[in-house]
Amino acid sequence: MKDDHHTMSVDAGTRGGNTTGMGFQRLSPADALNTLQRAAEASINGIVISDARLPDMPIVYVNPAFEQMTGYMTAEVLGRNCRFLQGPDTNREEVARLREALETGEPCSVKLRNYRKDGDLFWNRLDVSPIRDDSGAVTHFIGVQLDITREIEAEEARQAEQARKLAILDAVGDIAHDIKNMMAPVEGWASLLGDLLPEAKAALQRISNTAAAEDVAAIRELLGLMPDALDGIRGGADDAKDRGAEIADALKGNLRAPRLAVRDVADTAYRVAQTLRPRAEADATRLSVEGSCRPFAFDRVHVFNAIYNLVYNAFAYARGGAVRVRIAESDGSAVIEVTDTGVGMPEHVLNSLFTGHAISTSPGGTGLGTRIVARVAAIHGGRVEARSKLGEGTTVRIILPLRSADPASDGWSI
After folding, report:
1. Burial (CB count <10 Å: 0-12, 13-18, 19+), residue 10
2. Sign of the C-alpha dihedral, residues 315, 318, 324, 325?
3. How many CB atoms lie within 10 A of CB 243?
4. How far apart are CA 191 and CA 278, in angstroms?
5. Closest alpha carbon to 49 in 6, 97, 85, 108
6. What's the pLDDT score for residue 17?
């Protein structure tokens, strides 16, 4: 050979005629070996040959493409096992597959995250095949390497973009679901206000005619309800407007990050109850809020929506019964518990309640509300628990860590 730096030694025989044992036609064994040597040297894929007969299967040949791909020169790798290309980020499962193939003498194709000599990572698709002698014994292994870093990075970028689009769709779905729910109390308060106005007009007419004490009391009661109705309409409309603005941001790829501030979660629960009061009255359902815990950092909009969804869903099961929201503190966590005295849930519905396969038993329901609750708990580092018994009711607990906003600890501290 002209270049001993990359000399390859392979035994060649003849099978008859002008065909050598390596499959070359009309070439002598020496010419065939020389052609094979030049083909390996010219290959744009890295080629490495290891001796399976020696301990630790040392490298006996690498081609120039291997040098270019890894940064290692031939003299630096001859006599070494190929594992020097591995490192902390090399995927262990693929290494195990490769090791098993070498032990059993079988061909194997793996994708390894390897290290160049300068420490840079690259993705290496390695195709390994055994080389056998005339008796069938494995004498060497040949590995063909292809740098697939660009392909892997392109696929990762594609998957990241797909995940981003799915996140946007999830966010838009969550927001649309919340807006639908938020508009229900607006309609309820508006309906109540529509009922109050004729009653107030009639009471005023009677007062002008009789000035009866009971009419004065009635008009005072009606006037007292009007501010609550107007506040309910304004609050629901403002919440819906804020969530609607998030749809436009989400479609631009700007997903709303949690806005953490130390607040009293009981105040948020009372606000939910006030918002849903017309719905509770329409369903003849008793709605109550009780308990407290120390203030902690949470996103008011997200937690409001989580409690809102739980209470709103509870109404569907507890018509004419009771829905209770209880705030408590336990083991360094805030506990937001929503209990209804409704019909309860079958086990298969309960088991899927906060998963992507949530089942809604309400007419027209999608199960999306419970998934929103689970997502809100997750972004706060919390969890959701639920228990239910048919004929007795359901209890759902949102458990959130009692944290305070602290820039010194990257936004979180206990």
Report:
1. middle
2. negative
3. 20
4. 9
5. 6
6. 43
Cα torsion through 372, 377, 379, 381, rounded to 10: -160
What is the pLDDT at residue 197? 60
Whole-number Å distance between alpha carbons of 343 and 341: 7
Q: What count of other Cβ atoms lies within 10 Å of the Cβ of residue 342?
A: 23
Residues of the chain with pLDDT under 70: 1-27, 164-165, 167-257, 355-369, 405-414
Residue 244 is predicted with a pLDDT of 56
Q: What is the pLDDT of residues 63-88, one digit of tens each?
A: 999 999 999 999 999 999 999 999 99
Which tokens is 343 given?
Answer: 């019909």
> What's the chain's length in residues?
414
Residue 178: what pLDDT? 62
Specify whether the CB–CB gap between 201 and 223 falls below 8 A: no
CA atoms within 13 A on the CB side of 32: 17
* Tens digit of each residue's pLDDT (9 = 90 or more) over 258-293: 778 899 999 999 988 887 887 888 888 999 999 999
Is 0.90 topped by the overall pTM? no
